[in-house]
# Entry
Amino acid sequence: MAAPAKDPASAPAPRTRLHPDTRRDHILEAAGAVFAANPYSAVSLGDIAHEAGVSRSLVSHYFGNKRGLFVEVMRAFAAAAPEAVRTDRSLPVEQMVAANVEAWLEFAEEHRETAIAMSGIGALGRDPELQALVEEVRERVVDRMLLNHIGTTDVPREMRIALRAYTGLYEVAVSEWLQAGRMTRAEVRILITRGLFAILEDVVPALLAENERSGD
# Structure
């Protein structure tokens, strides 16, 4: 008696052999989703392997350990984060700032735990490689703000320093909102929007005037 024919719909899907770079990117994308939603201490390589649909040993093959994978996730975040701030000088400056602040908050909320870690307050806040990535993001964000408001990155030292200080305000505000829960999103929006205008319209002119007065 012949064996019954197998239902093609019930057969397992054939494995797709991915190029190593494609496989690595797939694991990195899965890791980004896991780390965005969970604190670093709560994530294991097994969690990431499950999300990616691969073995734990394959994750280790590409990234070594959890810290190595986390740094690569942070590197991808560092590349993407400044792109949330767009330059559209056709808009009135108030509208451009409002749109960029909203985009920043949306990006941070979507990547909650990653944004907290990138603020330097997370589990690997003192990690030298992560700190270098944080510095890279700060400089790129400052450059984007200068292009938005001034049209050039060739500005006096005082203006760049003041805007770097502003990135610290943003980082603490995001931590107070997403990690500590002591601020609402609306409060953060007000703080970083009005804080930016205060720095550009009041603090920077005062710094320039002081240095001119003192002869620096």
In short: DSSP finds nine helices and no strands in the chain. The first helix runs from residue 20 to 37. The CA atoms of residues 26 and 52 lie 7 Å apart.
